[in-house]
Amino acid sequence: MNLPHRFDVNEWFILIASVLLYTLIFFLPKRFPISQSIFIWLFNLYTANFVDFMIATKPLDLYQVNDGPDYELFDLLIYVMLYAPTAYLVIYLFDRWRPMGVKAVLYLGGWALLTTGLEEIAELCHVFEFSGWRHLYSIPVYALAYGLNLSLFRMLRLLYTASPKRMDKG
């Protein structure tokens, strides 16, 4: 895996945002069994990587991540350190507050807008260089991704609570 050619603002953005996000999550009370947390992390790691691969490479090639088209260490860190924990936080707070109906739609929309705003800041820090993608496209994509996350989480929660013999106690 390639290291960055230069360690500049995009790498600093990823590191600082990651430290802030993981610090926040670290201080939250434990809410889910470890197996559910791992599933959330892995699902989002692979989903974000897959979506970026589909729309950020040829034939679409709608944006570049970090320093260019080559996959580098900090590209991986975006998925592990930013996308996955953000989705975890979305699910965590949804499970805690349990918004229903219109409030649930507003919750997802709010997170989609917040994440798109953070994406704009990331673009200013040269984490992304858009060539055909627009931030407006990100809003429904994030809303759909978070909605899918919540649906999968509910399914996992049902499977977990329905299981008579739960091996994951913590």
Q: Your description of this structure?
A:
By secondary structure, the chain is mostly helical. It has helices spanning 9-27, 34-56, 73-97, 102-124, 135-162, and strands at 63-65, 128-130. α1 runs parallel beside α3, α2 packs across α3 and α4 (102-124) crosses α5. The longest helix is centred in the last third of the chain and has 28 residues, at 135-162. The N and C termini lie far apart (34 Å).
Task: Write out key terms for the chains shown.
single chain, 170 residues, mainly alpha, two-stranded antiparallel sheet, 69% helix, globular
Instruction: Report the β-strand fraction as a percent range.
Output: under 5%
Strand order of the largest sheet: 1-2
Number of helices: 5
The secondary-structure element order is HHEHHEH
Terminal-residue CA separation: 34 Å
What would the average pLDDT be, to the nearest integer? 92
What's the β-strand tally? 2
- State the shape: globular
Query: What Rg, in angstroms, do the CA atoms define?
Result: 17 Å
Give a short overview:
The protein has helices at 9-27, 34-56, 73-97, 102-124, 135-162, and strands at residues 63-65, 128-130.
